[in-house]
Structures are given as C-alpha cells and as structure tokens.
C-alpha cells in the first residue's frame, strides 16, 4: 500500500509540473527501495526519478523528496528510523517539497517522530 501511495504522489508531482529528474524517493531500507522500483515501476513510468536509501542520499538534494518510512507494527517499533542522523538526512534533502509517507500510529511512538508528527498536524 505504501508503494502505491508513493507512486500516486510522484504522479501528482509530475502532473503539477515537477520534472521526474527533480524528484527523489528516499527510504531507510534497501528492500523498500527495491520494492518501489519493482512494484511501483517508478523508474519505467517516470524516467529520471531517483530511488535511494537514506544513507545513500546523504549530502545530496532534490526539488521534491518523498520519504517512505516503511515501518508499521502494533508495538510502535521504528528500528533505526529513530536515529537522529538518519532522520536529519531524510528530512533535509528537499529544496522545495517534502512528503513523508508512513504509518503515523507506529512512528509517532518514537520521540523524534512524535515531535515531527505534532508539528505537521
């Protein structure tokens, strides 16, 4: 489901005039990156779009960045998403547009994401 939301948002950005080469989809997990590439067919449908891991995207920027958080569980476990450095890299890559897609019930249990969630509401 998260991959479908990412694809829909990329489509909306492109329809609004953002060039695919100015869009990045960033996720903390390589497996999610691979799933987005395969299931959402992002690279085929939107040539030039960049898919990458948070760690691989460090030091770079794009006009629009979509962050796919992946984590969803009843215990609110966020794994290494709760690390300040990774959160900083993920949230500071866009020049103009940041979209965060994830399970708010899971991530808001993490102190760092709870603050972000509260600010964005």
TrEMBL record:
Residues 2-104 form the DNA2/NAM7 helicase-like C-terminal domain. GO terms for molecular function: 5'-3' DNA helicase activity; ATP binding; DNA binding; hydrolase activity. Keywords: ATP-binding, DNA-binding, Helicase, Hydrolase, Nucleotide-binding. Pfam families: AAA_12. InterPro entries: Coronavir_polyprotein_1ab (IPR050534), DNA2/NAM7-like_C (IPR041679), P-loop_NTPase (IPR027417), SF1_C_Upf1 (IPR047187). This is DNA-binding protein SMUBP-2. It comes from Trichoderma harzianum.
């Amino acid at each position: 489901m998260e991959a479908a939301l990412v694809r829909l948002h990329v489509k909306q950005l492109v329809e609004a005039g953002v060039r695919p080469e100015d869009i990045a989809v960033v996720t903390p997990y390589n497996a999610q990156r691979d799933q987005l590439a395969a299931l959402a067919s992002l690279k085929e449908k939107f040539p030039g779009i960049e898919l990458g891991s948070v760690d691989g995207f460090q030091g770079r920027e794009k006009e629009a960045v979509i962050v796919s958080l992946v984590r969803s569980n009843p215990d609110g476990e966020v794994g290494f998403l709760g690390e300040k450095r990774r959160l900083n890299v993920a949230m500071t890559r866009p020049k103009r547009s940041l979209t965060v897609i994830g399970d708010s019930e899971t991530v808001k249990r993490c102190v760092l994401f709870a603050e972000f969630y509260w600010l964005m509401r």
